[in-house]
Design brief:
Blueprint lengths: L9 H28 L3 E3 L1 H14 L4 H13 L10 H4 L1 H16 L2 H7 L7 H7 L2 H16 L2 H23 L21 E2 L8 H6 L13 E2 H11 L3 E3 L7 E2 L8 H9 L1 H27 L5 H10 L7 H12 L2 H14 L9 H16 L4 H10 L2 E2 L1
Parallel strand pairs: 2-3
Antiparallel strand pairs: 1-4, 5-6
Helix pairs in contact: 1-2, 1-3, 1-9, 2-8, 3-6, 5-9, 8-9, 13-14, 13-16, 13-18, 17-18
Length: about 400
């Protein structure tokens, strides 16, 4: 019986499968995600063509389709138009049928036309890489020739690796379960602080907060193996990171907010909002618990906390939202916290306000925070004065 060109012990085949799938993960996160979808780094033609060829063999994904679907996910995140949000489609749907959701969106010509710009459109892309079945078939033949019958198993592992880990786990659990470094507008989470198994994509909240960063780790204890590979490529002259997550800078508190302070706050807006939430979390929890005890009415305590602290209300039904609004109106403290959070986030929201108008809004916000009578809000306002460009 044909045993293949390479004969290995059982654990050798396991290592081979893990190495091959890890190369695929690296190709997805470096080439498709950070380079193509977000332009977070420049990539030399050599690794770029290798990644395209490898993805054709191991996933059959078309670069333009993948980039377009991912860009739409960011543009329409957590809405009904999001191609794969567990907040609207359910965690089980995205986790176990993420690949089907991807294929369905790939058939949407409007999505590809609107979001697929800037991706490769050369002869190879038009005549070779668009034929997904040919690539997958070639990989099957290669695996069987090299490893014999066990090559079928290795090939099967390669075929399910990306659909499960990327389309299912990252798109599903990465918007459903985990921890958050930054209070961005969507429900993205970091699954674990070490991004190894999925190439760094585990740090999904960091990515959604700074989508154009080539580096996905943000804290000292986080590790992004995809960034390690990018740094190696940089040392070889084969890549160049264009942007990374900015680190906040602090100086002496300014007596009067100026344009530099405004720019620093806008630049580090996710850090600002995260610290705002953290500074008021204890008072918020205490106040909600007090309302629940004193009024004796049943309301969704967890939903109210999530709404007040993060502003995420897309998952609330209209009736539930109105019910929680009534609860908030009973507390001057909660009313102040919500209104001040919304006004703070308005500083970096898209609007027609001029820089002068935004600066005036910031000055008014700081003054009212310090006169609010809420000690934690006053302390946060003093910290806000220290943000520097």
């Amino acid at each position: 019986m044909y045993a293949g060109l390479i004969d290995l012990p059982w654990w050798g085949y396991v290592i081979v499968a893990l190495v091959l799938t890890h190369i695929t993960i690296a190709a997805v996160t470096i080439f498709l995600h950070r380079h193509q979808a977000h332009r977070a780094l420049e990539l030399h033609a050599v690794p770029s063509h290798f990644f395209r060829f490898w993805l054709w063999l191991t996933t059959g994904m078309v670069t333009r389709e993948w980039a377009a679907i991912h860009r739409k996910h960011h543009a329409k995140c957590e809405t009904e138009e999001d191609p794969h949000s567990p907040q609207t489609r359910g965690i089980h749907k995205v986790l176990w049928q993420g690949a089907e959701l991807y294929r369905a969106e790939a058939r949407n010509e409007e999505t590809i036309r609107r979001y697929g710009h800037g991706t490769p459109d050369d002869w190879l892309e038009r005549n070779v890489y668009r034929h997904s079945i040919a690539g997958l078939g070639a990989m099957l033949v290669i695996d069987v020739i090299l490893f014999g019958p066990i090559g079928l198993t290795i090939w099967a592992v390669q075929m399910v690796w990306i659909p499960f880990w990327a389309a299912g786990v990252v798109n599903g659990l990465g918007h459903f379960w985990g921890y958050r470094n930054f209070d961005c507008a969507d429900a993205s989470t970091n699954l674990v602080p070490w991004g190894i198994l999925i190439g760094g994509e585990e740090l999904h909240n960091n990515h959604h907060s700074f989508a154009t960063s080539a580096k996905l780790s943000a804290k000292w204890y986080e590790f992004d193996i995809g960034w390690m590979y990018i740094r190696i490529l940089e040392m070889l002259g084969l890549a160049k990171a264009r942007r990374v997550i900015p680190k906040p800078r602090f100086g002496q508190p300014k007596g009067v907010p100026d344009f530099d302070m405004l720019q620093a706050i806008i630049t580090h807006r996710y850090d600002v909002m995260t610290r705002y939430v953290a500074s008021l979390r204890r008072d918020c929890v205490r106040e909600i618990d007090r309302l629940a005890r004193e009024h004796g009415e049943k309301f969704d305590v967890k939903a109210l906390r999530r709404w007040i602290l993060s502003g995420q209300d897309a998952h609330l039904a209209e009736g539930q939202k109105r019910e929680l609004e009534v609860v908030i109106e009973r507390s001057p403290l909660l009313t102040t916290m919500v209104s001040m959070r919304e006004e703070l986030s308005a500083l970096w929201a898209r609007s027609n306000a001029s820089r002068e108008q935004l600066l005036q809004q910031l000055q008014d916000w700081v003054a009212r925070a310090e006169q609010s009578g809420i000690e934690q809000l006053r302390q946060f306002s003093l910290r806000l004065r220290r943000y520097a460009v």
